[in-house]
Amino acid sequence: MLYLPYVSSARQGEATSPLLLTNPAARPERLRHLVIGSPERVRSVIHRLHVLNYAEQALWSQLVTIPESGMMITPAQGEVFSLLRRDGPELRG
Fold first, then answer.
1. Which helix (H) or strand (E) holds 47?
2. What's this model's pTM, rounded to 2 decimal places?
3. Which terminus of the chain, N or C, has less C-beta within 10 A?
């Protein structure tokens, strides 16, 4: 949140309250990340994102084995997705 002091009609020397420029009740849109690959590569990407201060490792779920039948992703109506496929080292600095 961003706080900035505002000018008020308070007398000289009196403290003023900060002006809240964001709505504390508003929640940011949730973005879901999906990393699919070998357990070693998935752990490597999660670790790299942590090192880059993008996401704490503890916030990721445990690794989930994809069954032979595959898996289905069912987003909400109106949502979109983008897929990035990479081979080789992840997230070069």
1. helix 39-51
2. 0.60
3. C
